[in-house]
Amino acid sequence: MKILSIVWFKVLPAKFGGQKGIANFNQYLSRLHPLVCICSADNEPGADIPYKVLPVLPTGKKQLLLPSAWRKIKQAAIQEKATHIILEHPYHGLAAVKAARAAGAKLIVHSHNIESERFRQIGNRWWRLLALYEKWVHCKADMSLFKTEEDKQFAVTHWGVTEAKCMIVPFGIEKSVKNKEAAVLIRERHSIPTNHKILLFAGTLDYHPNAEAVTSIYQQLAPSLSAKQFPCSIIICGRNKEAAFQYLKSYTHPVVIMAGEVNDIEHYFAAADVFINPVQSGGGIQTKNLDALAFDLDIVCFDHLLQGIPASLCGNKLFTTTAGNWDEFACSIIKASQQSTATPSVFFDYFNWETITKKAADRIAQL
Asked: Which domain holds residue 64?
């Protein structure tokens, strides 16, 4: 078995949740079977990458419409003698279908969420067209990998994909170590008083659902916590490069610290007392929640943000509230800040990368 992984955007080096999900999946999968990743030219594979990387696709979304990009994918499938093609996200579906046919390979679509539903929820006018295309790609595939049971059932119910062709492949995680030095470092860096609880929100801020959450932190959550006289500092970390989201920089509040994109995000997770996730739109698994649990952080979020994370694996570390109820959200933060427990070992057993990729590889080999 030889796998060709098609990745249309930059995932190397992996910094954010979605990038890590694909990079780690390929890394662990390549330990079981030979793997080649064809990806956009802005990828920067390091010397430690254990599989072959072909950064030959154009950068940007326009590549999805370029016949030259389709030809490169087809050529790679033939030249690398791929027996199985894994398409990360559905966007290069047409090229992947043609490549699989030309190489005589099985096609697997790795869905990280229902993209058309995500488009619909954030108000993207192209969601209906994407829904038709996404359905077509999954129906053409020999197998579909989903991150959550909810996404799988959506495909079965709305697209007519048979359950026999579907598999749940969770987003893997590794346990992280908290240390007192990180807390000291972050408190000194941002002049945080020792009696303040550190609340962390992290994500790509130039993405509408996360930008909406930042607005809510400044305008709803921070004022509510201040009114309750709860001593805290809210740190917001994440990239914000798109012009449309620069308005976020105009917000101010005495307890909110806009740290922006940081090179040592692990120190912020290690220093935090509670992870807050006030995202209200978008779908799929929230990888930021998994990162927080890996650092033994309690999570406060709205009910719908726990897709793909079985509550039974998390002990008492999840605090959920009704969407839009900021007073309830603030009360949950205060309650979460009063406990400090480790994330149960069963959580890490379930989200173990080696276990996840071994099960996926065995199932793919049966096609």
From this structure: 3-172+352-365
Instruction: Decide: 39 and 12 in contact? Cβ < 8 Å.
Output: yes
Quick check: 178 pLDDT over 80?
no
- Same domain? For 31 and 8 the reply is yes
Residues 159 and 119 grouped into a single domain: yes
State how far the Cα of 174 lies from the Cα of 64, in Å rounded to an integer.
Answer: 33
What is the C-alpha separation between 270 and 252, in angstroms, rounded?
25
Please provide the DSSP assignment of 310-362 as one string: -GGGSTT-EEEE-TT-HHHHHHHHHHHTT---PPPHHHHHHT-HHHHHHHHHH
What is residue 283's predicted lDDT score, i.e. its pLDDT? 66
Strand 232-237 with 256-260, pairing: parallel
For the whole model, what pTM was predicted? 0.89
pLDDT at residue 123 above 80? yes
Other C-beta atoms closer than 10 Å to the C-beta of 363 total 14
Q: How many percent of the chain have pLDDT more than 90?
A: 90
Domains: count for the chain: 2
How would residue 16 be classed by pLDDT, with cut points 50, 70 and 90?
confident
Partners of 236 in the β-ladder: 201, 258
Residue 35 has, within 13 A of its CA and on its CB side, a CA count of 24
| 177: pLDDT strictly greater than 80 | no
30 three-class SS: helix
